[in-house]
């Protein structure tokens, strides 16, 4: 008699076919339905009105995930032509005009249908801080002019304001740690060292600082469920352009007709007007009486003397706290890694000295060889570099090393903890991103709920469950399996 295979019974065949169709349908629906939707983005724009120039930054983030760290990124930056807005004190309307090209650029970069919901902020830093000290009415007029200009843009203008030094330092620290994904994960934070043209900031978390000593240097944050007690200080007049004024003022106190400056290359020769040099609140009270109209600024290229002149602009004589950096300012013990950006990066990158594993002594030696190089040779070697920047790298490099070691107390051991950086994951290091994250409430105080599975994880789980169900189905049909008995089944 012919053996009949139990798998060939109509019921079994129907169950198997339905099972397979159901499984295929389940996987297909799971994969198709969970495919990420076409990504929609939101945008934010911040104008950094610095002392030397203004820059516009565009940030974007996925529309659904405002609250997730590491998701906001810089997509574009635009450098405003001309000087910083504080330079337009005598013709404020020009400050507003100067921003137009970058605003036009932003209009092309941000999708038109998002324009009216895109917040636009302008934050001014030390250049405007100095102008407001010098002439508060001129500073108000400059703010009015930029506000009038930005209100005409199609973006949602949220105002132009002067940032305090403390805010500038703290937002720079937020930016660096946000981009490094250290805040959400509650990791040890990175300190921030920012060197601008008119001021410089140092911000870090130190275990031996709870804010009780010198409370004005303390900023507290609760971010993603973690509390931070940040130490921050901004030194007005210690940005690299104002620091250069301080050293030149130091060398021209007797009102000479010429000076031999150890921080400029041998053969450097420029005429400087006394009134220009002393036209800043950082030095205006020290303008020598009866000085001639101009002096000749000659380079000498002597590194050790340059270090002495630069050191002389720091005051180490008084400290009413347990410890100080300089000028009587409290500073707790340095702790952790540091990111040094803005002019720290421009200068050390030009000098090929961003590698902090090079011993400090070797760094100093290389800088002194550079400073001693004649000005003609320097110009020949770098025909494409702006002469103003080129002339100042010897001074700027010496200033940076002096500020870090004598000012902030970095040692040969702690110097390698510094990383000279320009960008982190494509976004510029600076206060602007931290400022926008704060104003848009994009960093929550408490840790967000654990995120949903990513698409690939979801598909994998559905596939595994489906395979298991399939195996289960096969086993549930066991009664219909062919028996392994020697006796043939007779129907
Ligand atoms: N070497 C060099 N210096 C720069 C560059 N951009 C800006 N600087 C200088 O670096 C300093 C700081 O600039 P920035 O970070 O824009 O500071 P701010 O203008 O004070 O906000 C100023 O002295 C600028 O003149 C650059 O591309 N190369």
UniProtKB/TrEMBL annotation:
Gene Ontology cellular component terms for the protein in this record: caveola
Membrane topology (UniProt): Multi-pass membrane protein
Q: Which residues does UniProt assign to the signal peptide?
A: none
Chief subcellular location equals membrane
The processes (GO biological process) annotated in the record are: nucleoside diphosphate catabolic process
**The entry's keywords:** ATP-binding, Calcium, Disulfide bond, Glycoprotein, Hydrolase, Magnesium, Membrane, Nucleotide-binding, Transmembrane, Transmembrane helix
Residues at which ATP binds: 197-201
* GO MF assignments: apyrase activity; ATP binding; GDP phosphatase activity; ribonucleoside triphosphate phosphatase activity; UDP phosphatase activity
Residue ranges annotated as transmembrane are 12-32, 458-477
EC number of this enzyme: 3.6.1.5
List the active-site residues.
168
Which cell locations does it reside in?
Membrane, Caveola; Membrane
Where does the source fall among the domains of life?
Answer: Eukaryota
Checking Gene3D superfamilies in the record gives: 3.30.420.40, Exopolyphosphatase. Domain 2
Q: Which Pfam families match?
A: GDA1_CD39 (PF01150)
Protein role: Catalyzes the hydrolysis of both di- and triphosphate nucleotides (NDPs and NTPs) and hydrolyze NTPs to nucleotide monophosphates (NMPs) in two distinct successive phosphate-releasing steps, with NDPs as intermediates and participates in the regulation of extracellular levels of nucleotides. By hydrolyzing proinflammatory ATP and platelet-activating ADP to AMP, it blocks platelet aggregation and supports blood flow.
List the protein's name. Answer: Ectonucleoside triphosphate diphosphohydrolase 1
The encoding gene is: entpd1
């Amino acid at each position: 008699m012919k053996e009949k295979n139990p798998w060939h019974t109509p019921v079994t065949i129907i169950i198997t076919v339905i099972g397979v169709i159901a499984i295929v349908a389940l996987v297909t629906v799971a994969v198709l339905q969970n495919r990420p939707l076409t990504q929609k983005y939101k945008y934010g724009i911040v104008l950094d009105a610095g002392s030397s120039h203004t820059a516009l930054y565009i940030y974007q983030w996925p529309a659904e995930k405002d609250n997730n760290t590491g998701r906001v990124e810089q997509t574009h930056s635009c450098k405003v032509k001309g000087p910083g807005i504080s330079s337009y004190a005598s013709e404020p309307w020009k400050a507003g005009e100067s921003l137009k090209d970058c605003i036009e650029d932003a209009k092309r970069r941000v999708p038109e249908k998002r324009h009216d919901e895109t917040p636009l902020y302008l934050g001014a830093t030390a250049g405007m801080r100095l102008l407001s000290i010098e002439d508060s009415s001129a500073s108000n007029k400059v703010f009015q002019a930029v506000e009038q200009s930005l209100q005409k843009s199609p973006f949602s203008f949220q105002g132009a304001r002067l940032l305090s030094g403390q805010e500038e330092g703290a937002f720079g620290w937020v930016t660096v740690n946000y981009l490094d994904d250290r805040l959400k994960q509650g990791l040890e934070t990175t300190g921030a060292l920012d060197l601008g043209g008119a001021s410089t900031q140092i911000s870090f978390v130190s275990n031996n600082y709870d804010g009780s000593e010198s409370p004005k240097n303390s900023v507290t944050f609760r971010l993603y469920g973690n509390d931070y007690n940040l130490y921050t200080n901004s030194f007005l007049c210690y940005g690299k352009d104002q620091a250069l004024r301080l050293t030149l003022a130091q060398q021209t106190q007797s009102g000479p007709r010429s000076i031999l400056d150890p921080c400029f290359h041998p053969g450097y020769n420029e005429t400087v007007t006394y009134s220009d040099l002393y036209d800043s609140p950082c030095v205006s009270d020290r303008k020598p009486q009866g000085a001639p109209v101009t002096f000749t600024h000659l380079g000498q290229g002597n590194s050790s003397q340059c270090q002495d002149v630069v050191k002389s602009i720091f005051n180490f004589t008084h400290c009413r706290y347990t410890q100080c950096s300089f000028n009587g300012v409290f500073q707790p013990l340095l702790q952790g890694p540091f990111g040094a950006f803005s002019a720290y990066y421009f200068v050390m990158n030009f000098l090929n000295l961003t590698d902090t594993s090079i011993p400090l002594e070797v760094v100093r030696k290389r800088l002194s060889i550079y400073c001693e190089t004649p000005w003609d040779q320097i110009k020949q070697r770098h025909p494409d570099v702006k002469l103003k920047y080129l002339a100042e790298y010897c001074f700027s490099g010496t200033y940076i090393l002096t500020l870090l070691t004598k000012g902030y107390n970095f040692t040969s051991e702690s110097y390698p903890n510094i990383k000279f950086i320009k960008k982190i994951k494509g976004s510029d290091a600076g206060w602007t991103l931290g400022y926008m994250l704060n104003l848009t409430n994009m960093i929550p105080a408490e840790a967000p709920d654990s995120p949903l599975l990513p698409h690939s994880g979801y598909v994998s789980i559905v596939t595994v469950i489906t395979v298991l169900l399939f195996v289960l189905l096969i086993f549930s049909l066991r009664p219909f399996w062919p028996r392994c008995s020697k006796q043939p089944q007779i129907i």
